[in-house]
Specification:
alpha+beta; five-stranded antiparallel β-sheet; three-stranded antiparallel β-sheet; globular
Length: 300
C-alpha cells in the first residue's frame, strides 16, 4: 500500500478506528485486507490464538517491547547486528551533514552538498518510506524536503497497531546498492529458520515465491503478491551462510522474519520484522495458517 491510499488508511486508523478495542480493530483490518483481493475472511481468536495471524496479533502486546522498538529502528538495530554477526554485514551509511551525523530527526539538519550523487535516504521506522536517488542533480530538493517533513511526523503504529513503531522517527542515508540485489526473507521460529520468501518484479508486477531451506518450492500463495511457479529462482550460493546469520539474529524471539540481501555475492542485513504485513498476511491454501501457526510456540 503506497501513496494516497496509504495516507487515507493512516487517517482512518489514527482518527476513526482508534476508538476500537484491539480485538475488534485487528479483525476489521484483517477483513479489509481480504476484501481488497476478494478473498473470504474469518474471525481471529486473539485470546486463544492457534493460527499464524492470530499469534502475531497476540505478540503485538506481549514480549519485550523496548527491544522490539530498538530492532524495528533501521539505525538503532545496527548495534544489535554488529554484536550478533559483525558489521561486515551492514550496508554503509553516508553522513548527512558536515558534523558527520548518520541519523537525524529533522530535515533542516540535512546538508545536501555533503550527500553523494547516489544514495538511499530512508525513514528509520516503517516500511516504504524511501528516497532512492540515482542522480542528485535531478532531485527537486524542495519537494523532497516537504515529503520528508511529512514522513517524519508519521507514527507507523497507526497503520497496524505495532507498538515497536511508537516513538520518534529519524532519517538515515545508505550507500545505494544499485543492481543485482536479491532479497531473502527468513521466517524464524524460536531462533530456527524454517522457510523463506523471495520477492520479484516488485515494481511492475509484484510476486513472491516461498521455499524450504533445501530450496524446494512451497505451494504458499500470498494473495497480495502471488506466487509464480514458472519463475525459476536459482538457489543462492550463500544460502547456508544466510541460514546461519538468520539463526544468530533470531535467537531469543518466538518469531521474527530476518531479511537479508545479496549484492555482488556479498550478504547484507536488511531488517528484522516481527509482524509481516502487520500480521494480516493473506495465505492460500488456508491450511498454511494452521501449519505456520503450529511452528510458533508462544511464551506462557
Amino acid at each position: 500500500m503506497a501513496g494516497k491510499y496509504r495516507d487515507i488508511f493512516y487517517f482512518l486508523n489514527k482518527y476513526v478506528f482508534s476508538i476500537l478495542p484491539d480485538s475488534l480493530y485487528h479483525n476489521l483490518i484483517f477483513w479489509i485486507m481480504h476484501k481488497r483481493v476478494n478473498a473470504r475472511s474469518y474471525w481471529m481468536d486473539i485470546k486463544k490464538p492457534k493460527k499464524f495471524s492470530e499469534k502475531l496479533q497476540w505478540l503485538k502486546t506481549n514480549g519485550d517491547m523496548s527491544l522490539k522498538s530498538k530492532l524495528a529502528d533501521k539505525f538503532l538495530v545496527r548495534d544489535f547486528v554488529r554484536q550478533r554477526i559483525g558489521d561486515q554485514y551492514l550496508i554503509s551509511l553516508h553522513p548527512l551533514n558536515k558534523k558527520g551525523d548518520f541519523c537525524i530527526n529533522n530535515v533542516e539538519s540535512i546538508d545536501w552538498d555533503v550527500l553523494p550523487d547516489k544514495f538511499a535516504l530512508k525513514l528509520t521506522k516503517g516500511s516504504g518510506y524511501n528516497i532512492i536517488c540515482n542522480d542528485k542533480k535531478a532531485l527537486n530538493i524542495d519537494k523532497i524536503q516537504s515529503k520528508l517533513k511529512k514522513w517524519l511526523n508519521i507514527n507507523n503504529y497507526y497503520l497496524s497497531r505495532e507498538p515497536q513503531y511508537i516513538g520518534k522517527n529519524g532519517l538515515i542515508c545508505e550507500v545505494l546498492l544499485e543492481y543485482n540485489i536479491k532479497d531473502y526473507k527468513f521466517f524464524c521460529f524460536n531462533g530456527i529458520p524454517k522457510f523463506l520468501k523471495v520477492d520479484f518484479d516488485r515494481v511492475s508486477n509484484h510476486h513472491a515465491n516461498y521455499y524450504d531451506l533445501s530450496w524446494n518450492l512451497l505451494d504458499i500463495n500470498e494473495l497480495c503478491c502471488p506466487r509464480n511457479p514458472d519463475v525459476l529462482i536459482p538457489k543462492p550460493l550463500k544460502l547456508e551462510e544466510m541460514i546461519s546469520l538468520a539463526s544468530k539474529l533470531a535467537q531469543g524471539f518466538p518469531f521474527v522474519r530476518v531479511d537479508l540481501y545479496i549484492h555482488n555475492e556479498r550478504v547484507y542485513f536488511g531488517e528484522m520484522t516481527f509482524h509481516p504485513s502487520g500480521g494480516y498476511t493473506l495465505w492460500e491454501p488456508k491450511e498454511w495458517e494452521d501449519k505456520i501457526g503450529k511452528l510458533l510456540s508462544l511464551p506462557s
